[in-house]
Amino acid sequence: MDHLELLKRALTGECYDESYWRRIRPDTVPLTQPVKRFLANQMIKLLERKGFQVILPCRPDARLRERRQRGKDHPLFGFTMVGRRRLDNFEKLIRAADESGVLVRSWSAAFGGAEHQSWARQC
Predict the structure, then answer these.
(1) Is 25 left (phi over 0), alpha (psi -120 to 50) or beta?
(2) Angle 20-21-22 (CA atoms, 0-180°, nearest 5)?
(3) Taking a C-beta distance cutoff of 8 angstroms, is the pair 18, 76 a contact?
(4) Side-chain half-sphere of 7: how many Cα atoms within 13 Å?
């Protein structure tokens, strides 16, 4: 795995199973029995008033991973929510600009033009 792949996984939270966990809010309790659901909702409201959150551990399945790829989920934590596909597309655009020399010319124009010497190297 190269460093950009690892960076993208870290930014989207893909490398942390905990980022797939869900926060349970009142009235979203996954219980079918009305009495249990009512009691659970009341408990969640009480805990939220005290500053706590109720978290449901979830294992990432194919559906959750696909939503993460498209940027359609709301991870418990992550440093970006744009989705993996947009990050992959952004990487392709940057690589294409780098190969065509646009980045070096843009950097030179923005930060000094002809009076500064620009250096670029392959990493």
Answers:
(1) beta
(2) 115
(3) yes
(4) 7
pLDDT per residue as tens digits for the range 71-100: 888 788 778 878 889 999 988 888 887 787
Instruction: List phi, psi (to 5°) of 110.
Output: -75, -30
- pLDDT confidence of residue 69: 86
115/69 Cα distance (integer angstroms):
44
Strands, E, within the chain: which ranges? 22-24, 54-56
Terminal CA-CA length for the chain: 15
Separation CA 89–CA 94 (nearest Å): 9
Are the C-beta atoms of residues 37 and 31 closer than 8 Å to each other? yes
Return d(Cα 118, Cα 108) in angstroms, integer: 6
Gap between the Cα atoms of 34 and 45, Å rounded: 16
Contact between 22 and 76 (Cβ < 8 Å): yes
Query: For residue 79, which of 2, 22, 15, 25 has the smallest C-alpha distance?
Result: 15
Q: How far is CA 58 from the centre of its chain?
A: 16
